[in-house]
Amino acid sequence: MTLRKSLEARIQQQYDRMAAHYDHRWHDYLDKSLHILQAWSDIHASHRVLDLACGTGEFAYRLLSQYPELNFTGIDLSSKMLAVAMNKCQSFPQAQFESANIQQLPFPDASFDRIVTSSAFHYFPEPVKALTEMKRVLDPAGKLIIVDWCRDYWLCQIYDWLLPWLDSTYRGCYTRAELRGLIQKTQLNLHHLERIRPNWAWEFMVAVVSRA
User: Strands of 48-52's sheet, edge to edge?
Assistant: First the structure.
């Protein structure tokens, strides 16, 4: 088994174990981070949306409750997280969820108007490859929105030092300058990169990116 496959298997097992209680345990965190994601993603009913590392489908449920006919696709490595998402969104026929790898997305070129990912970029083992694949499936007029932890914040620096000791799947979060550099390597166009601190415990950064 390759190193990447081994990491993916460990991530899948870890989130399979958490799936049943994930929404309850992380309710406040999800509410804050997904509020930021929705505010910046500018999603409309006509958009084709891809959620990378969609987890329990909480973002899908929020969007679909507002836009029931939205064409929404969520991918994740954890089959049990996906099962929660499918159950949560079962009344929305346009929503689909599937197991897929971020570096080998099973979609044609230019398939989506919006690609979003929240609190997952720090798990991607090869972020440039992941961004390149996002670029491939993003419509030329579409946008990619990344919400993740920001290592410019001193407390996130502590998390970044501590978490590898507690979570063998954790890869590390980025500063704004580091994320900007990764985006530039893929020749994507960075429109906005902003720090947002919803409370004392967390600071996020949000990046809005396009192909053009």
Answer: 95-99, 71-76, 48-52, 112-118, 138-149, 202-210, 189-199
